Amino acid sequence: MAELLRAQARPQDLILHEGPLENSGGLVLYLGRSVKVVDGRQSSLAFGATFPEGRDVFWDRADLRARWGGRERLFLLSGVKPERSVVRGLDPKSVHLLLKSGGRWLYSNRP
Predict the structure, then answer these.
(1) Where are the beta strands (DSSP E) in the chain?
(2) What is the Cα–Cα distance from 76 to 95, expressed in whole angstroms?
């Protein structure tokens, strides 16, 4: 999945991770760029979410919904089964499954 992200994500695209980032800890290292965390404030690595400057990094479901339909391309890597995932709260027409592998799903708001 990281290889697909490296190949398709442009510098202006945002990469998001659903849930605690430690569940995919190598992602940031492999991509060499920052990742936004959706629904990941309850994790051992989310201490930074308690600081005001962490607000832009740690998103809740409302933040995701507000940005998902915008102009920017978003990629969402999730280890959460689709029936419990944040994607359930998004317009189904805007959720594009790019890859499913190893208990992970990679979505985008663009085909």
Answers:
(1) 14-18, 36-38, 58-59, 74-78, 96-101, 104-108
(2) 10
What total of structural domains would you count in the chain? 1
Does residue 101 lie in a domain region?
A: no
Q: Indicate whether this model's pTM tops 0.85.
A: yes
| Cα(18)–Cα(44) distance, integer angstroms | 15
Q: Please report, in tens digits, the pLDDT of each residue of the chain (111 residues total).
A: 999 999 999 999 999 999 888 878 788 899 999 899 998 766 555 565 566 666 788 899 999 999 999 999 999 999 999 999 999 999 999 999 999 999 999 999 999
Q: How far apart are the first and last CA of the chain?
A: 16
Tell me, yes or no, whether 22 lies in a domain. yes
Q: Within the chain, how many helices (H) and strands (E) appear?
A: 3, 6
Distance CA 23, CA 36 (A): 14
